[in-house]
Design goal:
Layout lengths: L1 H18 L3 H6 L3 H14 L8 E6 L2 E8 L2 H12 L6 E8 L7 H14 L7 E7 L2 E8 L2 H12 L6 E4 L2 E2 L7 H14 L8 E6 L2 E8 L2 H11 L6 E9 L18 H14 L7 E7 L2 E8 L2 H12 L6 E4 L2 E2 L7 H14 L8 E6 L2 E10 H13 L5 E4 L2 E4 L11 E4 L4 E4 L10
Parallel strand pairs: 2-3, 5-6, 5-7, 9-10, 12-13, 12-14, 16-17, 16-18
Antiparallel strand pairs: 1-2, 4-5, 8-9, 11-12, 15-16, 19-20
C-alpha cells in the first residue's frame, strides 16, 4: 500500500505541477549563461569531443550547438553530453560533419554494407543502403524498432558518413492491445535505473504512445522516449514530457526501490533481455541474490555477452553483475581470419582507423596493444574488436596517455572499472550509447 500511495501522490503532484504556473521552476531555473558555461565545461572535460570547434549558446534553457567536426560520432556525442547538463531543456544541433579525408560515396556505401553484415545482431537484416555526398539513407524492413535503431547506429559508425536518414520500415507482424503496450512501457520505465518513472505518465491509443509529465534532464527524456518504442508502437509523442531541473530532487522519488525482492529484479532483467535484439535470440538465465545478478547460458558472440551484462546493470535494484555467459561461436574462424576482420573493422571506424593499435589473436582471444590519447579511444577499439564474429574474449593492454574519465551513463556504452583502472566494455544502444 505504501508504494501505491506514493505513486498516486506522485501522479497527482505531476498533474498539478504540469497544469499550474510553475513558480518553483522559475525560482530554480539556471541563468542561460550558467547553462552555456556548464555545457562548455562538459565539452572541454570530455576528450572525445573537439570542444574548440563547437560553439554553445543558450536561450531560455534551449541549447544551440554550431560548428564543424570530423565525424558523426563526435557530433552526436556533443548532443548527448549537452543533454545531461541540468537546466538544459532541449538541444538544437546545427553542427556539421566534414571528414578530414573525403571518401567516394561508393566506398562509404561498401563499408556501411560490410559493417551491417559484420555486426552480430544486424547481419540478418535486409537493409538497403544509398549514399549521396556522404549522407546515408537506409531502407528495408525489420521486426522491431530497436532493430531499426541498431541498424542506424551501425551506419553512423562508418568513416566518411556525414549523416543518416533512416527510412527502414518496422513490421511487427501483428497488432498489440493498447493496454498491453502501455503496461510494457510503464514497466520498462519503472525498471530503468536512468529514468525516474514516478513523474512520467504513459497513454496509448491505437498504437500511438503519448508521454507526459516531468523529466529531470533532456538526457532522461531521451531515455524515456527510447524505452517507449516497444513492440507494437507506431509513434511516440514526448512533446508534453517537460524537462524540469528540480524534478531530480530525491525527495520526490520512490522511497522503497531498495526493498525490491530478488524475484522482482530477476523478472525485470528477463524482460529487459527479451527486448534487446543483441540478446533475445539466446538462452540467458539470470539469478539474483542480494542485489547481484548472475548471468548463465551460452551466446555465439562476445557482443551479446557484453550487451546482456549492460542490460542487467541498467535495471533498478541491481548492484553488481557476475557475467558467467559462455561465448561459443556458431562458425569457427581461424585466428588469421579474425585478425583480418578486426583490421577491416578498425579501418572503417572514423576514430580507430587513425590509431596505432596492435592486434594479436590466439584461439579466439584478441590481444590489443599500443598507446592512445584517451580512454574513449581504448574503449572504442575494444568494443569494435568484441563485435567481430569468432572473438570469444578481448584482452585490452592499450596504454592511455590521459586517464581522465570521460564516462557518462547516458552517453557511453562502457562502464569504468575503477578498480582495474580501465574501461569495462558494455555495448548499450541507447544508447544508447552503442554506443
Amino acid at each position: 500500500m505504501r508504494r501505491l500511495g506514493f505513486r498516486l501522490l506522485a501522479v497527482a503532484m505531476t498533474v498539478a505541477l504540469a497544469s499550474a504556473p510553475d513558480a518553483r521552476a522559475e525560482k530554480t531555473a539556471l541563468p542561460d549563461s550558467s547553462i552555456t558555461n556548464a555545457v562548455t565545461y562538459e565539452f572541454s572535460a570530455d576528450h572525445a569531443v573537439p570542444a574548440p570547434r563547437i560553439d554553445v549558446t543558450t536561450d531560455d534553457g534551449i541549447v544551440s550547438l554550431t560548428g564543424t567536426v570530423d565525424n558523426l560520432l563526435a557530433k552526436e556525442r556533443a548532443v548527448r553530453l549537452a543533454e545531461t547538463v541540468r537546466g538544459v531543456r532541449s538541444v538544437v544541433d546545427r553542427v556539421t560533419v566534414k571528414p578530414p579525408r573525403p571518401r567516394a560515396d561508393e566506398a562509404v556505401r561498401d563499408d556501411v554494407v560490410a559493417a551491417l553484415l559484420m555486426d552480430p545482431a544486424a547481419d540478418s537484416y535486409e537493409i538497403g543502403v544509398d549514399v549521396e555526398d556522404g549522407h546515408v539513407t537506409l531502407t528495408g524492413t525489420v521486426q522491431s524498432w530497436k532493430e531499426r535503431e541498431l541498424s542506424e547506429t551501425v551506419a553512423r559508425s562508418v568513416r566518411g558518413v556525414t549523416g543518416v536518414t533512416d527510412e527502414i520500415r518496422v513490421d511487427y507482424g501483428a497488432d498489440r492491445p493498447d493496454l498491453e503496450i502501455q503496461t510494457d512501457i510503464a514497466e520498462a520505465l519503472r525498471w530503468n535505473s536512468l529514468v525516474d518513472h514516478e513523474l512520467i505518465q504513459v497513454s496509448v491509443e491505437d498504437g500511438a504512445v503519448r508521454l507526459t509529465g516531468l523529466a529531470g534532464t533532456a538526457a532522461e527524456k531521451r531515455r524515456a522516449r527510447l524505452e517507449a518504442w516497444t513492440q507494437g508502437v507506431k509513434s511516440v509523442d514526448d512533446s508534453n514530457l517537460r524537462v524540469a531541473r528540480w524534478s531530480r530532487d530525491e525527495n520526490l522519488r520512490e522511497p522503497d526501490k531498495l526493498a525490491l525482492t530478488a524475484g522482482e529484479i530477476r523478472e525485470a532483467v528477463e524482460d529487459a533481455l527479451a527486448r534487446d535484439p543483441r540478446v533475445y535470440s539466446f538462452n540467458v538465465t539470470p539469478a539474483v541474490a542480494t542485489g547481484t545478478v548472475t548471468l548463465r547460458g551460452t551466446v555465439d558472440n562476445l557482443e551479446a555477452k557484453r550487451a546482456a551484462e549492460s542490460t542487467a546493470r541498467n535495471t533498478v535494484g541491481v548492484l553488481a553483475v557476475d557475467n558467467l555467459l559462455r561465448v561459443e561461436p556458431e562458425h569457427v574462424a581461424t585466428d588469421t581470419a579474425i585478425e583480418a576482420q578486426i583490421r577491416a573493422s578498425f579501418e572503417r571506424d572514423p576514430l580507430v582507423w587513425a590509431l596505432n593499435v596492435g592486434i594479436r589473436v590466439e584461439d579466439g582471444t584478441v590481444h590489443l596493444t599500443g598507446t592512445v590519447d584517451t580512454q574513449y579511444e581504448s574503449a572504442r577499439a575494444d568494443a569494435i574488436a568484441g563485435r567481430v564474429p569468432g572473438v570469444t574474449e578481448v584482452v585490452n593492454r592499450i596504454k592511455v596517455r590521459n586517464y581522465a574519465k570521460t564516462f557518462n551513463p547516458h552517453v557511453d556504452s562502457w562502464w569504468y572499472d575503477s578498480m582495474a583502472g580501465r574501461p569495462l566494455l558494455e555495448n548499450l544502444t541507447d544508447g544508447t550509447a552503442l554506443n
